[in-house]
Amino acid sequence: MPKSVDVEEKRAEFVRASWDVIAAEGFEAATMRRVASEAGCTTGSLTHYFADRRSLLIEALRSAHFQAGERMGKVAEEGSPFERLHAVLLESLPLDSVRMREWKVWLAFWGASINDPAIASEDAKRYAEWRALLENLLTPLSQDPEHEADLIIALVDGLGIGLARAGFAGAALKRKQSECEAALNRYLGKFND
Amino acid sequence: MPKSVDVEEKRAEFVRASWDVIAAEGFEAATMRRVASEAGCTTGSLTHYFADRRSLLIEALRSAHFQAGERMGKVAEEGSPFERLHAVLLESLPLDSVRMREWKVWLAFWGASINDPAIASEDAKRYAEWRALLENLLTPLSQDPEHEADLIIALVDGLGIGLARAGFAGAALKRKQSECEAALNRYLGKFND
DNA sequence: CTTGACATATAACAAACGTAATATAACATA
DNA sequence: TATGTTATATTACGTTTGTTATATGTCAAG
After folding, report:
1. Using CA atoms, how far apart are residues B37 and A50, in angstroms rounded to an integer?
2. Inside any domain, residue A43
3. Residue A97: its pLDDT value, please?
4. Domain CATH code at residue B148
5. Residue ranges making up the domain that contains A89
6. Beta carbon of B63 within 7 Å of strand C?
7. Which of A7, A72, B79, B108 shows its CA 20 to 30 Å from the CA of B99?
8. Residue B53 domain-assigned (yes or no)
9. How many domains does chain A have?
10. Which residues in chain A are closer than 8 Å to B104, comparing Cβ atoms?
């Protein structure tokens, strides 16, 4: 007899609203009221789906990790070993608005992870998965997949942050994105000879 | 006739207190009260030296940049071209507690720069200086200093964040730091043959 | 329809914030 | 030592926050 809604979809809406607020206005701006209004309702509804702010934001981070992980898995399935590696690394950079939003969310959470073990732990989990995928992809390509993964992870993190950090927009952003892609390709050249 | 204190030194004390709070407890924890108490006084004294929270935190960022820049300049002055590059890049990583604090502060500010143009601008300024120094150091070593600088900046950012992001401590931290140093040396090997 | 459980909105609360105003303490000069 | 400016502490104010409590709305089953 009760009114029924798709609970998981409703939670996902609030998670997406959190992403939008964090990516556009920063972590501090992601208050309960702000996220609720971004989702088009009030805190009364939001608290009905998330007990408190912390659990909302942690779910937002976990969800961003999951979404990115799904995309990585997909693009890692087809092509030659080099093509797979190349596709995964390209997919990992903030080269469109969706991935840029993800990177800004991650950047915000990295800063916030300083004193929140739950956030740091969620980050560590994702990092381990990401690293395992990379090592697999590098096994047929490198004599030292572990060390090569260290370098590539750092490179991708650095390139991504270089794009997400400052407030690039429009043509300047497009140029920066092309430079990043070129830098990645230049480094990967050593696997493609 | 007035009581006189060293204004610049007093401001520096508050800046250092900001660093400690941000690095240990995150950006959000750096409230006026918290920073003042970390410095051993109350907000009354803090507001006497910094008009508001924003100017305090921006000065904290600027000061961290300046301090790191001074160190970079020093270690870039002696040795062969390769030795200079190597020394500067080693100095840029969070391999001791002072530099770790700096990196955590930067990480926190990167997240906060999303919606604060002044922070983003201060970051961009520092980035330009850092890039110029690197290009100079690379000129005698690389046929393509600009592109090489792109890669190295990304690599160092990624390595530094890998150390500063998660909550490593004790032996695990030391091991991670050694791995980072090794990864850097492995990449720089191509300049040292 | 009526009903009753769930969804959502509204309202209220204490706590913490940035900031400003005010009061006290300290000290260099006269 | 007396004085007056500066440094610091204390207090207070208006906002905003997370959270909780209460009221209103909504819809599927009987």
Report:
1. 34
2. no
3. 96
4. 1.10.357.10
5. 61-191
6. no
7. B79
8. no
9. 1
10. 114
